[in-house]
Write a structure and sequence with these properties.
nine-stranded antiparallel β-sheet; disordered N terminus; alpha+beta; globular
């Protein structure tokens, strides 16, 4: 009659199983089951914001003229064309990922126009062909600490901006230092999907001297 593992062996196997899960990426619910999202470690969380440490991420980015709906839509349309074959190889690029992001960098001079871009996330390691449209380019965002405030519902420019202002105020009250002239809106649902409660986020990068803390 065969004997099963001894109690000591069971303990060793259990410890090994627990250790094998340490540091592994647990996909958050808002990313959905069959999609891929940028990996991060949750460092801290409170009622106002989260503090995340992201790994290096890969994006395709289109510069746009403004945050108007027409300009943002044009930027995402260019990225969609790139994905569907408007590139030097004429091939479709897999992109079952979230989020789509809008990044706004405010000019430091009074009255200067902001720099605006839209981006799609691609799984790191994806071999991206060169685009035919010179207004879009590959972007690698380095690993780093990001402060995040979540808001739900159908996203709008006014709500995203208000959330960015709120997050900046909360970070200041918490004694955090951050990139005050730049924020990113991250959106994990199609605007045409009316059956889901939309998950949206505002990202603000920690200041450079806080990245290692």
């Amino acid at each position: 009659m065969e004997k099963g593992p001894t109690p000591g062996l069971w303990s060793a196997l259990l410890i090994l199983a627990m250790l094998s899960g340490i540091g592994s990426w647990v996909v958050p619910d808002f990313c959905r089951t069959s999609y891929e999202c940028p990996e991060y470690t949750l460092l801290n969380q409170n009622a106002d914001f989260e503090e995340r440490l992201y790994v290096e991420t890969l994006w395709m980015t289109a510069k746009v003229r403004s945050t108007s709906n027409a300009d943002l839509s044009e930027g995402f349309w260019k990225l969609d064309k790139f994905r569907k074959g408007n590139n030097v190889q004429g091939r479709t690029v897999p992109c079952k990922t979230w989020p789509a992001i809008i990044t706004v960098r405010q000019g430091e001079d009074y009255g200067s126009e902001p720099e605006v871009s839209v981006s799609w996330f691609f799984v790191p390691g994806t071999q991206l062909p060169l685009p035919l449209d010179t207004s879009i380019s590959m972007e690698v965002r380095p690993a780093g600490k990001v402060y995040v405030r979540i808001f739900s519902g159908t996203a709008s420019q006014s709500k995203a901006l208000a959330t960015a202002v709120e997050l900046g105020e909360m970070l200041t009250l918490a004694g955090k230092t951050f990139e005050a002239h730049r924020y990113t809106g991250a959106f994990y649902d199609s605007p045409w999907d009316i059956l889901r409660v939309h998950h949206n986020e505002i990202w603000i990068n920690a200041a450079q001297h806080e990245q290692g803390s």
